[in-house]
Predict the structure.
Amino acid sequence: MSVETIEKRSTVRKHAPRYRVLLHNDDFNSMEYVVKTLMET
């Protein structure tokens, strides 16, 4: 007869780092569209 030991591991969750956003100026999207899109996310 064998004996098994089960270890319970605790996990510590870290918060995800904040995003770094880089915006490029282009001729296809208006400033209003970009602001609206960023506010929706």
Summary: The two ends are 59 Å apart (CA to CA). The chain has a mean pLDDT of 87. Residues 12 and 32 are 41 Å apart (CA to CA). Residues 17-41 form one domain.
